[in-house]
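Quick illustration for those who missed Monday's session on complexes.
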Amino acid sequence: MKASCEHHHECMKVIQRIIDREATAEEEAAFLTNKDQCLPCQEGYALELSLKKAIQSKCSVPCPEQLFAKIRAKLFLLFILISILIPLFC
Amino acid sequence: MDVSVEEKIIPDYKAKEIFEKEFMPHLDAMYNFALKLTADEDDAQDLVQDTCVKAFRFIGSFEPGTYAKAWLFRILKNNFINDYRKKSRGPSKVEFEWVEQSISSDEEYSEPAYFADLHAETVQDMMGDEITAAIQSLPVDFRMIIILCDLEEFSYEEMAKILHIPIGTVRSRLHRARAVLKEKLVEYAKKKGYH
Ligand SMILES: [Zn+2]
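Prediction with zinc ion bound:
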């Protein structure tokens, strides 16, 4: 197993595209065959994956309930305005 | 607004239906995006409300069946930037860091090749608040692209449309944003004494 990777920058770009599901099938296959022989790429892959998963699972909060109500109230007002104004001008 | 929309009159009942069916399900996602951008709950709520009102006004130009979430996010992003520009003319407003304005923005740059100090396990052990704080400490362009990609799972093509940038810029900006985020996380990890 290689302890250093001579093209790690390029590898990291491919790794991120793989994780984002934007890599081509060839890129993904090539990476998976080489991964076992390259420690930095293995660790880089694990790191990128854990970061993406952590952001997805830990970084969102539910929208405050009152926001739904506020928005509906605002739109209701807009409706009334429109239904008063449009007959006036048409 | 660079969204190619125009006000078109459609019947009220239809507008209401589109709004409830296509837009309301994305309110959580919109709120999260707004919260990461503004870092303030009240500002985030205002931003989402403004976005909804604008989306409603331009609802006639929304094509049902197309991706409502991307459409809404584009309006939200434009709203945020316009607001920011207005506010930044005032004297006492917070100075945002804009990557767009710095010369090195999306060019190649020298990233630390190998994050030997940051391990997958360290990230797994981190609290959501710590990762959120690290994201919020990024320049706004970086913050946006990380949220769109990692939290909301937009495709590169959708992000290009939302952010109004070429897809190559999406790739390079995302790559760079992640490198900076990892640097921040390394600092956090050291401070907090994670291994
Ligand atoms: Zn490698």
